[in-house]
Structure to design on (333 residues):
């Protein structure tokens, strides 16, 4: 009887791709406190049925397009993946900045200057391993060419901040040897108590849940190129959405409902996460030109009245003060 794989030996490691798309380089990177990594490795077999087979059953199976997708869920200590889900990432004096970019510019400036003829978005490699005692007993799946499709950052009262990052990869390889080493970050993860939300200049001090979704609409085409794997992905329509649940309060209720929801005025908002005790853990998301697209205001027979409102569209940027000596660079180039 073989050895069972136990969850305490599971590990998910990120590796940069800085030379060529879908080719990892360098040491393993700490993503955060990963709690789940799901990989959907779809072989998409095609069923053959045809005249002359004289059977009601499937005659045979053909190997269809191979799609590798997944979601990694973690509690963040930095904003590495989230920064790259926004667009262009630059670094100076310990500040990581992320701004939107259009497809009219280079999406991923590989250091070698090659492997990006189709202007591929930022990509990375994920190694998912289940380890067991014994030589050659590890179960390791490595997905190259991972491109972020959508990322959701959620802060809920009394809990750690959580990230759900949906990705698509070019291909998956299996091995059973040695896993990639990774160093656990010394910082604690962001907590709900580090977070604050300001909408149209008013602090939403009674917010209970804030969820910021960044969706780049990534597509993975299956070209006629002699391969079952996807070709180099490209980005589709971009969507931002902020969903907030808060106790309804007189300091913002009328303003948000009358002027911005019913009145249709544009607004700006800032979502701030500040765990900064040593000048090394503070991130701010700033959105301008947004609109409240829904606002739920139920009246109940018990407790405090709540509101749940959604803010869509706008232009997003991020500034992240994370000590590069501790967490390292966000850029492989």
């Amino acid at each position: 009887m073989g050895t069972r794989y136990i969850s305490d030996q599971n590990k998910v490691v990120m590796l940069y791709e800085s030379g060529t798309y879908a080719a990892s380089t360098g040491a393993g990177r700490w993503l955060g406190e990963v709690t789940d990594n799901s990989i959907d490795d779809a072989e998409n077999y095609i069923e053959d049925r045809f005249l002359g087979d004289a059977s009601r059953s499937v005659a045979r199976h053909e190997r269809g397009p191979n799609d590798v997708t997944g979601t990694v869920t973690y509690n963040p200590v930095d904003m590495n993946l989230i920064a790259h889900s926004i667009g262009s990432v630059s670094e100076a004096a310990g500040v990581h900045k992320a701004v939107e970019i259009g497809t009219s510019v280079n999406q991923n400036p590989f250091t070698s200057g090659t492997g990006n003829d189709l202007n591929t978005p930022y990509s990375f490699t994920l190694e998912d391993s289940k380890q067991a005692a014994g030589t050659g007993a590890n179960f390791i799946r490595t997905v190259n060419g991972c491109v972020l499709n959508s990322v959701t950052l959620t802060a809920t009262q009394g809990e750690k901040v959580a990230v759900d990052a949906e990705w698509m990869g070019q291909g998956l390889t299996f091995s059973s040897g040695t896993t990639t080493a990774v160093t656990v970050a010394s910082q604690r993860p962001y907590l709900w108590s580090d977070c604050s939300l300001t909408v149209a200049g008013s602090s939403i001090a009674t917010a209970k849940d804030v969820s910021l979704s960044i969706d780049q609409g990534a597509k993975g085409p299956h070209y006629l190129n002699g391969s079952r794997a996807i070709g180099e992905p490209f980005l589709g329509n971009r969507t931002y959405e902020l969903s907030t649940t808060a106790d309804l309060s007189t300091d913002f209720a009328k303003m948000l409902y009358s002027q911005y929801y019913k009145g249709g005025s544009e607004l700006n908002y800032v979502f701030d996460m500040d765990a900064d005790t040593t000048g090394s853990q503070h991130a701010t998301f700033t959105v301008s030109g947004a609109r409240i697209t829904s606002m739920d205001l139920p009246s109940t027979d018990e407790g405090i009245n709540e509101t749940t409102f959604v803010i869509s569209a706008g232009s997003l940027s991020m500034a992240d003060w994370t000590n590069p000596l501790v967490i390292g660079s966000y850029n492989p180039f």
